[in-house]
Each structure stands twice: as C-alpha cells, then as structure tokens.
Amino acid sequence: MSERAGRAPGKRGPAYPRAVDALISELAHLPGIGRRSAERLAFHLLRSSTDEAMGLARAIEDVKKSVRHCGVCWNLADSDVCDVCADDSRDRATVLVVEQPKDLIALEQTGMFRGVYHVLMGRLSPLDGVGPGELTLAPLFERVDDPAKNVAGVRVAEVILGLNPTVEGDGTALYLGEQLAGRVGVRVTRLARGLPTGSQLEYANKAVLADAIECRQRV
Amino acid sequence: MSERAGRAPGKRGPAYPRAVDALISELAHLPGIGRRSAERLAFHLLRSSTDEAMGLARAIEDVKKSVRHCGVCWNLADSDVCDVCADDSRDRATVLVVEQPKDLIALEQTGMFRGVYHVLMGRLSPLDGVGPGELTLAPLFERVDDPAKNVAGVRVAEVILGLNPTVEGDGTALYLGEQLAGRVGVRVTRLARGLPTGSQLEYANKAVLADAIECRQRV
Description:
The structure is a homodimer. By secondary structure, chain A is an alpha/beta fold. Chain A contains eight helices and six strands; from the N terminus they run αααββαβαβαβαβα. Chain A has a four-stranded parallel beta sheet with strand order 4-3-5-6. The first copy, chain A, has a two-stranded antiparallel ribbon with strand order 1-2. In chain A, strand 1 (68-69) and strand 2 form a beta hairpin. In chain A, helix 1 packs across helix 2. The first copy, chain A, is globular and about 65 Å long.
C-alpha cells in the first residue's frame, strides 16, 4: 500500500462526479432531507431506469409550469380558476376558510361540503413573522364586500372558519371573526369542536372534553 | 351549509391539479418517502422559486445523462474512465475492492490510499438473490489475470479486500479470497480489524475485542 508523504489526510474533497454532487446538494435542500438521505436518494436515482428518474424531473417541471393559484380562492389550480370555483353546482354563497390547499383536499374527500373555499395560505403567527399582510385576507374581505369579486358574482352569505384547532389557528379565527363581524349580511360560523368520532372518552384530553361539554348539541 | 342528498361521503377523489398529483406519486416512489412526505415535498417545491425547483429537475436529468460506470473499476464516472483510474500518479498495481462507490469516497476522503479501486456494486447475499453473477467479479478477475484489462496495462500485485465488516461482507471476502488464492503473483490482504480509534474498551462489543486480540499488532 503506497502512502504518499506530505499529503494530509482529509485534504481531498469527495470524488463523486460533478453531476452526482450537484444532485446530492439539490436534494439536501428539500425539507427533512439531510446530507445522508440526499446521498441515498441520489444513488437510488442513479440505479433506477432513465424513464423513472426522468419521470420525476418532468413532474417537477410540469408542476412549476402548469400549477398556479386560483384567482378567486387561492386553491391550487391548473387554470385561472380552480376546479371547485369553476363547478357551477356548488353553493357560491357559502365560503369555507382554510389554511392550506391540503386542508381543502381533506374536506373535499368527505364529499359533505357543497360550498366554495378560501385558502389563507397560512395562519397568523407573529413569532414567525406571519402577519395579516402575509395571508390572503384582503382578497377574502373583498369577496365578502363585493359580490363581483366572488365566483359568478354571488353575494357571500356565510363564512365558515375552518382553521386548524391549534393556538395559532384559533388566534387567526378570532382575528377573522372580529374583522368580519362588522360586515352586513354575512353570517360567520366555525367548524364544530367536540369529541372525535371513533375515540374513547377516557383517552380524550381536557381541552377536548371541555369543548365537548361547552358546545354540547341538542338531540 | 348546503349538503347535497345522495352524495356518499368519500366518493370524490383528491382534487389536486393533475400535475401536483403526478409529482406526489413520483416522489412517493423514492425510497423512504411515504405518501405524506411526498405531499410535504411537493408543497415545498410548489412554494419554492422556479429556479430552485428547476435546479433539482435539471440535476436529475444531468445525472442520468452524464454519469456512467468506469470501464475499469466500476466507480461512478462522467467519462469512460473515472478520475481515480485516470490519475497517473496512482499506484495501479494495488487494487482495493469495495462494495459501493460511497465506500470508495469514504476511503478517498482519508487521503491515505494511493492505489486504485474495484467497485463490486454490492456483496454476495444469497437470501436477496445476489450471487457472483450480480456483482462485477468477472471484470475483477480479468484485471488480475490480464494486465491489459487493468489501468495502463499494469500487472496487479496486491488486492486489498475492503468489504464491510458484516456477515455478508465477510462472506464475500471469503469467496474472493478463495477465488484469488489460485492466481500467481497476487497478494491478497484485507483492511485491518480492531478497536476503532477514539472508542473506549469498556464499550466495545465482544466481536471487536476478539478481533483486537486475535489481530494484535507488534509495536
């Protein structure tokens, strides 16, 4: 084994081909993907067929080219108006406000809601520097105030607050409730709080039980 | 809130734009990435700048276009022969056999080895269906037998077995040792076993201590 004098250990950088290094550092930029996982993913892509790897590359390009936000409700869309807003069987007078497009998807999957949505693109979080200006609050207030700004010019009759039942979600709902209270002709409601169906009372936490008692429903 | 009679809950599929669904399922094909993580990554790519997302897409394309295996040692390369094999300051008579390109990188980072490598692309693992035919054993034996098949036509004088110190790595080393034993003029060695520098005796496991005793070195 020939050691070469004068060559300090660790002096050489990694010797992957340039393209592999580039891919690893691109992958390591993704959230929750560290350097090690990025290497593992890069080696997977190296091993997999060209079709498979190119499928991923093309999917990323497609998304950046074709996906935008709905001009009315800020849901993800592949045209100017999203599928929900474009569907004229929906009740455009009822607007359910959610934080993220994925909340909208979760609600859509129940098939129980036939109104339309408004996606805030986040929740108020002063500690993270997210104030009212960072969310799509202004377009929501415009939709409520001016029927021309809502889908098909329908006047908004009810705003349902569908934020996450967390401290920040509740804070955002409180703020929205205050801002919307002054608007004439608009009912503001929120999604029900209580025991999750399928759960057991003995394992429910205090906040859930308190909600269940306070918001008890007539049978 | 208008519910529509006759619409069963859960009947609607997810309502992401087609391109977003496609990206999520491409990402979910990656190892260790489930559906939830794939959604999280897709939303990250949607939020990030076009340059950033396209950077990843282009890095994948680049890797599939430009990266291949070295014709001599099977290391990753961006031309017919890898950087290590192409470097004429290296000792081509000493071949260190490793399982994967990443093992080669780890060894290169020490800067202590000035020979060349041979990457097996795995280890023997009968339970996973990996036999001698799945590895680059034939090209290794050809390099040893015929100087013309080695870098710059140099005759191989020493083969160092650098497989992982695991059951399967050891099994592969045993097989290689047997296969190489009959070849005239080739010395077969393996990487040293013993206590890892920086560790503490009291925490070393029995196998490590047994190796340390058995392979004790003269000082």
